[in-house]
Amino acid sequence: MITIEDIFGIDNCEIQTYSAYIHGDYMHPDISPSRDIEYPEFKNIHYSDLSVNIGKLQTVKDTLQDRDLFLIPSFLQYGDYDNSCMVERSNQKLFLEDYEKESGVFTITGGYGSSGIAISIKWLLNPDNEEIAKNIMDLLNGLNDYPCIDDGDMSNMEYESFLEALDNYEIRDFIEAAGAKFNLEINDYDQDKTRDLILEIDRNLNYPSYMIESGGTCYIDTDRLIEPLTIDQLNPVLTDYEVI
Fold first, then answer.
1. What's the farthest any 2 CA atoms get from each other in the chain?
2. Which of 5, 41, 165, 174 falls 20 to 30 Å from 230 in CA-CA distance?
3. DSSP of 26-61, one letter per residue?
4. Of the candidates 203, 202, 198, 204, which has an alpha carbon nearest to the alpha carbon of residue 177?
């Protein structure tokens, strides 16, 4: 049987209350104007509707007598300007694939790309949910031993981020750096061939040319891609250039 002590003892989680002040047309027309609610009526809630962390077990026990509380796991939340990387994004994706439809599981959104998971503690304590709740708690405890649910999924997401960054800016940066290396003024080039060339060079490096930085952004080291580049590799992608 799951106890509140079991839940409170999970590291890297916060326990918070939910209290939203809803206006008539803010979320749903059936909600009467300007009334307090203490439990999410929809599967997505906002960070601003959550309290600060409750850090004492007795306070948690006392609060649960009157209202629900919510478990917020840090390894399942991320934002654009925090210390998260692709690990948290992969973890959240995989967690939602398994548990998104459970009535006690809620997604959280906020500003600056912030996203997280809130889990009802009363739902976790409900004996009817014991098997699923135990699986969730085992997962959360396991993340404190190793903070990634699936290395393969995380690696795939990192590579997808690399490909996106490649198309967004790296092809252009690569061509500019290549022109500087070989003293060329490159006026035009084949986008697809350049992309294929970058991918070929990246595959032949000792380790990838990219890394995922804090906030989940992808950094590509253009200098590492340019270093092994030869003029024979570059020529087929160029369609209009001049020697400086």
1. 78
2. 165
3. TS-TTSPSSEEESS-SSSEEEGGGB------HHHHH
4. 198
Answer yes or no: are the C-beta atoms of 70 and 123 closer than 8 Å: no
Q: How many CB atoms are located within 10 Å of the residue 208 CB?
A: 15
Query: Within its chain, how far is the Cα of 221 from the centroid?
Result: 22
Domain boundaries, the chain: 4-148, 152-243
Please name every residue paired with 224 in a beta bridge, in sequence order, or none if there are none.
none
**Residue-wise pLDDT tens digits, 148-177:** 999 999 999 999 999 999 999 999 999 999
CB-based burial, 11-45: b 16+ in 10 Å, e otherwise: eebbbbebebebeeeebeeebeeeeeeeebeeeeb
**Which tens digit of pLDDT belongs to each residue from 49-62?**
999 899 999 999 99
How far apart are the two ends of the chain, measured CA to CA in Å?
A: 76
Find where tokens 């509707």 sit.
49
Is the pLDDT at 199 greater than 60? The verdict is yes
